[in-house]
Amino acid sequence: DIQMTQSPASLSVSVGETVTITCRASENIYSNLAWYQQKQGKSPQLLVYAATNLADGVPSRFSGSGSGTQYSLKINSLQSEDFGSYYCQHFWGTPWTFGGGTKLEIK
Amino acid sequence: QVQLQQSGAELMKPGASVKISCKATGYTFSSYWIEWVKQRPGHGLEWIGEILPGSGSTNYNEKFKGKATFTADTSSNTAYMQLSSLTSEDSAVYYCARKGGYYRYDGFAYWGQGTLVTVSA
Question: Residue A8, CB half-sphere, CA atoms under 13 Å: how many?
């Protein structure tokens, strides 16, 4: 199985700052990667698919990048509604594993 | 619009089985895989597997083979996941989800609201 290592596990950031979350795959996943945001008690919400494509309705302050085994989710000018947990997930061969998650706290 | 509506919370005894439903509306149910995801506090998200309702084809995460069984009823546009021989390790929120498109790299764009399964004597 492909392992997805996500970092950091948690971070506390002020409104207006920029945040980068990274996800490293145990082998090349050829940009078959998605990012999700999940708020407490809610279902995950798709942010980015195919490593760099924003899902419908996702604000442009979110962006995805990367290739091969290394991927990143960047949030520019953090807003208070961006708190929550973030997960990556690969789609290169089943099982489609998720990263361990990043809990983003707003200072 | 695409919606996935799941059945309500379940409280089960160890050793029992439970069947969770996921009713789909707003699209051609038979044409898209329905995905199932498990979430336990402190254990993140786990992909259990998927079913293509139109054909009944399934793919299971090896970890969940023998634990989860997927079925689908195209007459009611409802997918089901049965979990058997329940233990405390099966206590979790279970989600059904659907990809945004037909491609491998399309993420899970649509999610049900989740079904909490609690296994307790």
Answer: 9
Instruction: Identify the pLDDT of residue B96.
Output: 98
CB A98 within 8 A of CB B47: yes
- Contact call for A50 and B45, based on CB within 8 A: no
Cβ pair B44:A101 closer than 8 A: yes
Is the Cβ–Cβ distance between A73 and A84 less than 8 Å?
no
Encode pLDDT of A48-73 as tens digits: 999 999 999 999 999 999 999 999 99
Q: Answer for the pair A87, A35: CB distance below 8 angstroms, yes or no.
A: yes
Buried b (16+ CB within 10 A) or exposed e, A44-63: bbbbbbbbebbbeebeeebb
Looking at beta carbons, which residues of chain A come within 8 Å of B112? 43
